[in-house]
Amino acid sequence: MNKWIYAATAAATALACAPSASAAEVIYTCGASPRCDFTQANGTGGFNNLVTPAERAFDHYYAVSLSEAYKLTVSLTSASAVFGFSASELLAADRTTSLGTFSNNGELGQLVAAVVPGLYYVHVAGELLADRAKSYTGTIEIAPIPEPATWALMLTGIAAVGTALRHRARTTRIAFS
Question: In Å, how far are 21, 33, 38, 124 from 99, measured between CA atoms?
Answer without folding.
Answer: 27, 23, 19, 14
